[in-house]
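ok trying this again, last paste got cut off
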Amino acid sequence: MLKMSESDANFGSSGAEMESDDSMVSQGTDARLVEQARRGDTDAFGQLAQRYERRVIKVIRRFMPDQDLALDLAQESFLKAFDRLDQFDPSRRFGPWLFRIAVNTTYDYLRKIKRKGRWALFSEAGEDRVPDPAAADPRGDLDLSQEVHIVLADIPEAYRTVLVLRDLEGFSTSEVAAVTERSEATIRWRLAEARRMFKDAWERRDRSIEEESLG
């Protein structure tokens, strides 16, 4: 795995920051590194990987809590990005393109293991572990972060992606639109729908657990 840098990529930090001078410098640096990498400079791509690796892993872990799997999928995403650099439109930003590859790679893996009947990714919460304060909760050892993953898994992919990137990772609406290649109006609508779906799914889960505890 490529060594992580000490600072995250600027992409996804906040809408205001994306408009800042620092962000413009970052985008310019990305464009320069991408151009060098497209000419075969592997060191340039390594610098891009260092700029984005930590954030890519963090986003992937929003879809699955297993740290080792997230690292593997991040590595696979960077390899795909490198192999597809000739398909990248240099008039656009590199960050959204990279995150789109990472999200799609993660979904491909989740679909594959679901078909194989191995849907058991919620046994560990990893670094995001948040203990459930309710000691008598009938869910036992299942903690809050695991429950969030389980409920998110019931939301259709297009809506889940928007909810994860916008509400959990703090991407701006314009950034999510760039990652998903959808209009900002579509992202706002999908976000509202995704929040409703999550609320309904969470309440159904709570009712089911309550009924089980009473029965």
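PB: full thing came through this time. The chain has nine helices and no strands.
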